[in-house]
Design goal:
Number of strands: 12
Shape: globular
Largest sheet: 6 strands, antiparallel
Strand content: 35-45%
Radius of gyration: 34 Å
Structural class: mainly beta
Oligomer: single chain
């Protein structure tokens, strides 16, 4: 064997060993790419959650609210806190009487109802027959909203727990929102009360459970006037 042959032997062996190592590394990499295990950069493809809606800075006077309280199908767009001549299935002087909707945006109450560390909001809303007097008021309630998902979401609508004995609806005002509960004051009518002046007063409570608002109690503080 010549000296050239002796020198080529070790070189050839080293080359073969290198090729084997490269093939092994390549096979391992292909296995890692196909084994279903996500690599670090693949995790960035998930869309981040929406930023929570800050209800304290929401323009309540110019927003859209659900139409259910006023028996309107769809949402109602407020302008300066009101919406007029809104289609409705309420019967008034005529069937399907349109409603004038008023939101008491100066009386919005905030509190952490759900316990997520963010404030929910309670907005009082009144529905009245279009161009009517107090006798044409059809419904009054407090809409309770959440904004954790980045949009305005209705949790539920509070309506009076006391019986309705007058032409106008009873009035409900939220006093406090705490985790899992809402306390309210109800002003309600007796059979002898004029439309302007309800004389009944009650303290009521609502419980938040399994994502819903449930009437819990209502204690009469002042009995309304009764007809003689």
């Amino acid at each position: 064997m010549t000296n050239g042959s002796k020198q080529r032997g070790p070189v050839l062996a080293a080359t073969i060993a290198t090729v084997i190592v490269l093939l092994a590394v390549g096979a391992w990499w292909l296995y890692r790419a196909d084994d279903g295990t996500p690599t670090q950069h693949e995790g960035t493809s998930a869309k981040p959650g929406s930023k929570p809606l800050d209800l304290e800075v929401l323009d309540w006077r110019n927003t859209a609210i659900p139409g259910g309280l006023c028996r309107h199908q769809g949402s109602i767009s407020l302008r300066d806190g009101t919406a007029t001549n809104v289609p409705s299935t309420f019967d008034g002087p005529e069937p399907n009487m349109p409603q004038d909707v008023s939101a008491f945006t100066d009386e919005v109450v905030y509190g952490d109802l759900t316990g997520d560390g963010r404030w929910e909001a309670a907005l009082p809303v009144l529905c009245s027959n279009h161009d009517s007097t107090a006798a044409g008021q059809r419904a009054m309630g407090v809409m309770v909203f959440d904004g954790a998902a980045g949009r305005l979401r209705l949790i539920g609508t509070l309506t009076t727990q006391q019986p309705r004995l007058g032409e106008p609806p009873n009035y409900i005002r939220v006093e406090k929102i705490t985790r899992g509960s809402i306390t309210t004051t109800e002003t309600f009518y007796g059979t002898a009360d004029a439309n302007c002046c309800p004389t009944g007063l009650a303290d009521s409570a609502w419980h938040f459970t399994q994502g819903k608002l449930v009437a819990e109690s209502s204690t009469v503080r002042a009995t309304p006037s009764a007809a003689p």
